[in-house]
Amino acid sequence: MKHRSSVWFLLLAAAIPACGQLLSSHAPTAAAKPPATSDAVLQPPEGKPVARVNGAVLTDRDLLREEYTIFPYARQHNGGIPKEMEPDIRAGAMKMIVFEELLYQEARRRRIVVPRERLQRAEADFRKQFSSRADYDELVKTEFKGSQALLDAKIKRSLLIEEMIKREVVDKSNIAVAQARAFYAQNPNRFLIPESFAVQTISVIPPGNASPEQAKQARKKAEEALHQAKQTKNYEEFGLLAEKISEDDYRVMMGDHKAVERAKLPPQVLQAVETLAPEQVSGLIDIGNNAYTIVRLNAHIPAGKRMFDEVKDSVREYLKKQKTEVLRRALDERLRKNAKVEEL
């Protein structure tokens, strides 16, 4: 499989919505070992049991895949997890694989059925993760003993887990507009707007150890930039000039700093913008070390409070995330209450 040494487990984790546990074993037999790789760090463990959930065995292969779901930057660490992060990631991964096994068992207890059409779509989506049919066939051979039926069973397992999450968490986590409005009314300070200035800049910044001649040239360049800036008539013209001649980091964004809070503006820039009306361009502003900037004021935004309609969607999303986590934790606790979970 392409890049097998570093992503053989990640290809599977990305395949379907319940992702991380597509390959989870829940029988006392270990999964097939993948082909040898030259990078020993990236070779998966053998399938040693790490937990039993009502008798179903979860292995260190399951645990490793979940660790890489939690920490997807492992490739940047040569396939490993930084030692200082490993205990927390391992603990989180263990909780997740146990939780998902409990969800799967509960789905079976409830006799939830996965429609055949949904299973077929998931199978098709899974195949799309592979660059060729040969890669796909190799995975079926090495991970599923050449059995398409075994792969289908794993996909079905993930879909059952996803369905449980949908029924018990997602479908119950919607937030009504009235709830968002109540939160808005009860937390007025969260929606205050500090006084801000929306500005664009064009800057001339010589080297930090500029010679007298370099400082003189910087001044001359800044004066020429000011002359051109004064000729611009709107946001676009000033922005295009900034892209062309400015030397600060905002040049790639048409010099646009968006809205900057009053307290975050350098004193000399604040002094200048306070004298400007919207759409006016300042004179040269000396910002120290032989550097200069020119500011265009796009808007002066007074202190105030955001209207509910402005923040309604973000408030609902914030509350939904909170409710989702509460429901997920409660579901986990409920499933664990009468379960026998052993960490080995």
Explained architecture:
The protein is 49% helix and 13% strand. The longest helix is centred in the C-terminal third of the chain and has 30 residues, at 308-337. The chain is α+β, with helices and mostly antiparallel strands. The strands form 3 sheets. It has a 4-stranded antiparallel sheet with strand order 5-4-7-6, with helices on both faces. A 3-stranded antiparallel sheet has the order 2-1-9. The chain has a two-stranded antiparallel ribbon with strand order 3-8. It has 3 domains: 4-168, Triger factor/SurA peptide-binding fold (Orthogonal Bundle); 177-189 and 309-321, no CATH class; 195-302, Chitinase A, domain 3 (Roll). Helix 2 crosses helix 3, helix 3 (86-109) crosses helix 6 (148-168) and helix 7 packs across helix 11.
Task: Offer a few descriptive terms.
four-stranded antiparallel sheet; alpha+beta; elongated; three-stranded antiparallel sheet; Triger factor/SurA peptide-binding fold; 11 helices; Chitinase A, domain 3; 344 residues
The CATH superfamily title of the largest domain: Porin chaperone SurA, peptide-binding domain
Shape: elongated
What class would the helix/strand composition place it in? alpha+beta
Distance between the termini: 32 Å
Mean pLDDT: 85
Supply the CATH class of the largest domain.
Mainly Alpha
Q: Please count the helical segments.
A: 11
Q: What do we call the CATH topology of the largest domain?
A: Triger factor/SurA peptide-binding fold
Q: Helical content, roughly?
A: 40-55%
Total E-strand runs: 9
Relative strand content:
5-15%
